[in-house]
Automatic annotation (TrEMBL):
Keywords: ATP-binding, Kinase, Nucleotide-binding, Transferase. It comes from Ditylum brightwellii. This is Protein kinase domain-containing protein. The keyword Nucleotidyltransferase does not apply. It comes from the Eukaryota. Residues 138-158 are annotated as: Disordered.
Amino acid sequence: MTSEEHTAETGTYRWMAPEVIRHESYSSKADVWSFAVVIWQLITREEPFSKLSQIEAAGMVALEQARPPFPKGTPKDVCLLIERCWKENPNDRMASDAICIALAKMERTLDASDNLWLQEPYGHPVYDLSKSKVVCRPKPTTSGSENKSAPITRNRSFMKMFARKGSGGK
């Protein structure tokens, strides 16, 4: 493990990178993940996965590669930036300096209507709307072998993720 990798869990599940939730080694790329969620939250003015418990939200992110949905009208460049920051593989996420460059470019290239959209004081909620979600990427598929009707909290591997290492709990 390098001096830049960490293993202790810290943070709040809704903003936590998948590798941190799974108690894997992680680097500053976990912060890039959290940055993406904060940007998403600034756009929507909502908590990610607000209809789920913290544990359910964490399980969806860590095991099913779920991401919060983008509101209708999200500028394409904003979607792309966020998506490049919350990629599943930390090595595929943007570096901090690349994020700064992308934000500076975006500031110069977004048109007036996109800027107005981003400045909406009440945000663009996605969870309080009936069915007007827009996702900028397809949902990941899973193999058909697991029982999709079983509640996620009953999944043993899911619950093991939340047991503290060395706590003696099963």
